[in-house]
Amino acid sequence: MINLTQHWAGLVSIVVFCAAYSLVVAEEFTHLRKSKPVMLAAGIIWALIAVQYAHTVHQEVLEEAVERYLTEFAQLFLFLLAAITYVNAMSERQVSMALRSWLVRRSFTYRHMFWITGLLSFVLSPVIDNLTTALVMCAVVLAVGQGNNKFIGIACTNVVIAANAGGAFSPFGDITTLMVWQRGVLEFQTFFALVVPAAVNYLVPAVFLSLATSREPTPSGDHQVGMRRGAKRIMVLFSCTILTAVAFHNFLHLPPFLGMMTGLAYLKFFGYYLRKTHVPTPQDRKDYGQVGDVAPFDSFNEVARIEWDTMLFFFGVIMCVGGLGFIGYLGLLSGYFYTDLGPTTANILVGLLSALVDNIPVMVAVLEMSPVMDTGQWLLVTLTAGVGGSLLSVGSAAGIALMGQARGAYTFFVHLRWTPVIALGYALGIYVHFLVNDRFMGRMPGLE
Predict the structure, then answer these.
(1) pTM of the predicted model over 0.70
(2) How many domains are contained in the chain?
């Protein structure tokens, strides 16, 4: 490989990436979709690298690097494709509307709804991953807070913090925790030592956020909305899909996305059954328990409803950061962190860096460097990489996805307004980690 960190091509790549991210941040004002600048930047960065590698003996290394990062994106894309399709299918079957109806009829206040969605996000994300949880809870928030953009913005911020915190203490809660577990750095049960620090990381900012949430009751109504035919079975199939992904990874040693795509096939076959047994007449709908299901269910419609701007944004970010890593910047930065600053300072900064750059390539850089650290420090970097992205809306997959799902109500600047209290939770979570996980300090991985 050629070190381009001091070369003009490398410096221009940094400028291009920073300019692209500036446009992402300014999306609220420019109305330029966030995927466009990062996709363009990715192409420019790799083109600059390719010019320097042209006619050299390292040409194959360049091609392999592009394929490696493309594979990383493809796995993420297929995982999200299955997860979001299920979320869309449940929305189409009126699951979120039925939940909203159930909540509204019980006269919960906006503050009650804030805590209900936040706590559910924290509890569910370790099982069904932080991104999927955030998408499901955001659908509920949008259904309950119709017309109240202030509540939607605060509640979505809360959901992102809770989902990221909950995902930090489970191998299946976040892609970064999954990567740490796959490398064999930490045992499965060791991750759960982060439950208390993660809870502190969520609850501290949540208390402040809740104070800005109205005590007024959500719009009342006696109208009961029922779920459409097959809704409960789709929820069961979604659970089976998650279990399939876990089983594929845990027992068959296959990537989780393959299990998710297999689970997507469950939905496709069930969708075929719904179409074949569709009955459009009002009396038949009553007999079959089918609520408002005039048109037959089509799972491909739910695929088409995926937020493609978000998907393409992931592509652009992974390829941009991959290009900067290939140039040598990530390795240079990681080397400086762990050699000169020490693991504690480095791991705290990793979390701060993950707020600016997606935590996936940041964790990849840490794992590739493979610094010698005890179990306590590996737990620390797992925690900070997982929850550090909550500092900014663009710092995590959950935040990025919700900006697309709650467009106009949950934005970069709505989230940025609460960054100081999120940072307080981040700092206190780290402090609590050192208090409650002292037994892991000085103990090398594999001996915990």
Answers:
(1) yes
(2) 2
